[in-house]
Every structure is written in C-alpha cells, then in structure tokens.
Amino acid sequence: MLEAVSSHFATVSQTLCPVPADQRPINEYRDLQGSWFFGWSMWPLPRFQRRLALLWGMAGVVSGPLAIASMTSQAAPAKVAVAGVLGANLFVLLVVVRLILGWLYVGDRLQRPTVIYEETGWYDGQEWPKPEAELAQDRLIYTYELRPILQRLRVTLIILLLFSVSLIGLWGWL
C-alpha cells in the first residue's frame, strides 16, 4: 500500500516537473552512483584505498621512466626516485580532485531550492522551484549519503597534498 502511494506521488511529481529527467538532481546523483569512475568513492574504505594504490602504481609506471629520462645522468638516484613518486602522486591527486568536483556539483544541485535546467539548449535556461517534499528528500540524500563521500575525498586530498609537500621538501633536502 505504501509503495503504491509513494509511486503515485513520484508519478505526479514527474508529470508536474518540467525538468528533463537527465537534469534532475536525484537522477544526476544516481548516475554518479552507477558510474564506474565516481562509484569508487562509495566503495568500502579498504577497497577504495586499493583502487587509489593501483592508480598510483600505474601512474608510477609512467612517471618513473619519465623522471629517469628527464634527469641528467649526474642527478642523484634519490632525486630521480622522488621525482617519479611525486609524478605518480600528482596524477592520483588530480583524480581525487575530479571526484570531488563531480560530487560537489551534484551536491550543490541537491541542496538548492530550485533546479536550473535547459529545455533544448544552452540558450533557453529555466529555473524550477522544487516542491517542499522533493527539497527535503534531496537534502536528506545530501546529508546522509553524499556528505560522507565528500568527507572521505577531502581527507584523501589532504593526505595526498601533505605527501606531495613532504616529497617536495625531500627533493630540496637531497
């Protein structure tokens, strides 16, 4: 019974809502959830960390030889190693920044009381105020599902930045 009422209200909301389905914040959130790239952020922490470590290793396979090729033969081997590690770390840092930006965009759209959308192209932007029930639902999703993802990504970003700064300091010390 409750499912029938819920689906009825969802149908009414969808028929009254002029926003195209792919531009609705809840659908944008679901798209990111199902995305192979953005979905990593929702994985359990150990699995997420393994994925970042795998990315770091793959980037190291590229940045290591680049560091070797770009340094003179008189450069200290330690400096070459630090350059390779820093290059790999910067790649992972860029990936994390991209994850944060994607989730922040959807989070902003979930929290706003209005939905800005385009009917047919960039030149005919419209704004639709969300009904109270939809706004409350979107804000709950942001608070309990999206905010923890953003928190994890921010902590990861800070750790990567601190590691990069320490590598730069090590470079100067060598």
Automatic annotation (TrEMBL):
It comes from the Bacteria. Keywords: Membrane, Transmembrane, Transmembrane helix. The chain crosses the membrane at residues 52-69, 81-106, 155-173. InterPro entries: CGLD27-like. Pfam families: CGLD27-like. Coiled coil: none annotated. PANTHER family: PROTEIN CONSERVED IN THE GREEN LINEAGE AND DIATOMS 27, CHLOROPLASTIC, PTHR34214. This is DUF1230 domain-containing protein. It comes from Parathermosynechococcus lividus PCC 6715.
